[in-house]
Amino acid sequence: MANANIKDIAEIAGVAISTVSRVINNHPDVSEETRKKVMEIIEEINYIPNNSARNLKRSNSTDIGVLVKGIYNPFFAKIVQSIEEEVAARGYTMILHYNNDHANDIEAAIEFVKEKKLKGLICLGGNFSNLQEAHLEDLDTPLVLASTDLEEDRKRPFFSSVTIENEKAAYEAVDYLCRLGHKKIGIITTGEEDQCVGNLRLKGFRKAIAHHGISYDENYKEIGEYTFESGFDALNRLVDRVGDLTAIFVTSDIMAIGAAKAILNRGLRIPEDISVMGFDGIDYAKFFHPSLTTVNQPGEYMGKKSADILFDIIMNNKAHQHIILKTELLESESCKKLV
């Protein structure tokens, strides 16, 4: 078969692409029967592995990549620090790379691995909803997705993930606002490109208000981009459009702080005029005045767990894992109970 690749071999053998890759690279976690079957097909079709890919796979690199979506979200800072400590403790080196807001995250991850010949990769944020095993077939590099959420894909065996239940956490945050008596609740979330997190938090928002008999109105939604400025601008657009807000749920603390600043700039008070609920639990939320009520994510532990899983795969040939961490609602000064 001319120009055959490992996908063709996998189809003929009736096995996964990753199984063919493990056979080619002499990984031990393949049964002898499967190994023999795959090798017979390889010989029969005269398959010749891509040399550059083989060289990449045989690399003795001790570099671990961390790919961060965007450069503005301080929530990732603690995760990165925790990963770096775990990587250094094992004698490896961390290479940090920022992916801009509009680049394709899967393509950026693949290019990063190939360019740096990484031993492993942890991705913070980004949209990996269309990630397929074929994307990783020539890399043979373990991938861990952290702080992103592929809700329906948590059981897929060719990558690992460490995340939270974004929809549930958002539901609990907005339910808290509803139980304080708020009915005119706005939301600032991220756009269509943030399917893995922003969309799930919007779903949680919609479920919570529906539970309390509040109809969803698109006029009460605005879009931001994980920056102070976008939160500031989104709040102003929202209040200009609907002037009767009593509370706002913002799907990241950095946007929530920008929104809070816009509220104060308009001569309004927090929480007397508008209550503000954030999400992430970054340090800025604690030291902003008034301090933000927010959903706290365990960032440091998320980083540590991501690194632990990655090195279990690299050093101990363990299987991929999908871990879901708990969040905590931190009550502070920015939300008020209505009389």
CATH topology of the largest domain: Rossmann fold
Q: Note the gap between the termini.
A: 76 Å
- Count of helical regions: 12
> Which CATH class of the largest domain applies here?
Alpha Beta
Q: Helicity, in percent?
A: 40-55%
CATH architecture of the largest domain: 3-Layer(aba) Sandwich
Domain HTH lacI-type: 4-58
Protein name: Transcriptional regulator, LacI family
InterPro entries: HTH_LacI (IPR000843), LacI/GalR-like_sensor (IPR046335), Lambda_DNA-bd_dom_sf (IPR010982), Peripla_BP_I (IPR028082)
Keywords: DNA-binding, Transcription, Transcription regulation
Provide an overview of this structure.
- With 339 residues, the chain is of the alpha/beta class.
- The chain has three domains: 48 residues, 434 Repressor (Amino-terminal Domain) (Orthogonal Bundle), CATH 1.10.260.40; 132 residues, Response regulator (Rossmann fold), CATH 3.40.50; 132 residues, Response regulator (Rossmann fold), CATH 3.40.50.
- It contains twelve helices and twelve strands.
- It has a six-stranded parallel sheet with strand order 2-1-3-4-5-11, sandwiched between helices. Strands 7-6-8-9 form a four-stranded parallel sheet, with helices on both faces.
- Helix 10 links the parallel strand 8 and strand 9.
- It is elongated and about 75 Å long.
- The termini are far apart.
Give the SSE map.
Blueprint: H1 6-13, H2 17-24, H3 32-45, H4 51-57, E1 63-69, H5 75-89, E2 93-99, H6 105-116, E3 120-124, E4 143-146, E5 160-164, H7 166-179, E6 185-190, H8 198-211, E7 221-224, H9 228-241, E8 247-250, H10 253-265, E9 275-277, H11 283-287, E10 294-296, H12 299-316, E11 322-325, E12 328-330
Parallel strand pairs: 1-2, 1-3, 3-4, 4-5, 5-11, 6-7, 6-8, 8-9
Antiparallel strand pairs: 10-12
Helix pairs in contact: 1-2, 1-3, 5-12, 7-8, 9-10
